[in-house]
Write a structure and sequence with these properties.
The chain is an alpha/beta fold. It is built from eight helices and twelve strands. The longest helix has 21 residues. The chain is globular and about 55 Å long. The strands form three sheets. It has a five-stranded parallel beta sheet with strand order 2-1-3-4-5, with helices on both faces. It has a four-stranded antiparallel beta sheet with strand order 6-7-8-9, covered by helices on one side. A three-stranded antiparallel beta sheet has the order 10-12-11.
Length: 228
């Protein structure tokens, strides 16, 4: 079965270019030209990943992302934010509301395909390399099911948030620099927008609630999972 990608962009030329290249890469592509249609198609088709433009008519990309993350049916679908805005604040906002990654226009089709492959690989790499369950008191991290529970209740995490937590927990007690996490989770070079790590960490901690006490910030360096 082909991997399903929903592409949302109100520029016909951009939509056509993306669809052409993703079809060529072997993906099944669905398209939407506005935010309302994007939400409808995400619920209907349950894509494996969504490429979402920031500037959209009717409902903009930020609101679409927020809505997708609030809905239990779509909350775990990876989202790649696509935007013509290159300012750091726009990228941060996109990541804050739930995007897993971003690409700024103009972009190369090859880069876009590689980013999609990286996002899809995050979930698989965790379970392929280390299938063992991590249990810390009331926090359970199960890579085979790609599931986290705290006090017996499931914590809904995106693939990126899960991989970030899993890597920290597996390296319990060892400080992980932002640059190291950027390379291991996002597969980026260390000099690429390290604030991405902090943004995802805030989201992860918020979702973990009281269990966020397991993650310690090492000022000026990075993060450490302190466990017991």
């Amino acid at each position: 079965m082909k991997t399903r990608v929903l592409v949302v962009d109100d520029e016909p030329d951009a939509l056509e270019l993306i669809e052409y290249n993703l079809n060529g890469a072997g993906y099944q592509v669905f398209t939407a030209a506005n935010g309302t249609k994007a939400l409808e198609m995400a619920r209907r088709h349950q894509p494996d990943v969504i490429v979402l433009d920031l500037m959209l008519p009717e409902v903009d990309g930020i609101e679409v992302c927020k809505t997708l993350r609030r809905n239990p049916e779509t909350t775990e679908i990876p989202i790649l934010m696509l935007t013509a805005k290159a300012d750091e604040i726009d990228r941060v906002i996109g990541l804050e509301v739930g995007a897993d990654d971003y690409v700024t226009k103009p972009f190369s089709p090859r880069e876009l395909v590689l980013r999609i492959k990286n996002i899809l690989r995050r979930g698989r790499l965790v379970s392929d390399k280390q299938p063992s369950v991590i249990e810390l008191k009331d926090l359970v991290i199960d890579p085979e099911r790609h599931e986290v529970t705290y006090l017996g209740k499931k914590v809904p995490l995106t693939v990126t948030e899960f991989k970030l937590l899993f890597i920290l927990a597996r390296r319990q007690g060892r400080i992980q620099s932002r640059e190291r996490l950027l390379e291991d989770v996002w597969e980026y070079e260390a000099d690429v927008f390290t604030r991405t790590v902090d943004t995802h960490m805030r989201r992860l901690r918020k979702k973990l609630g009281a269990a966020s006490e397991y993650i310690e910030t090492v000022r000026g360096v990075g993060y450490r999972f302190i466990g017991d």
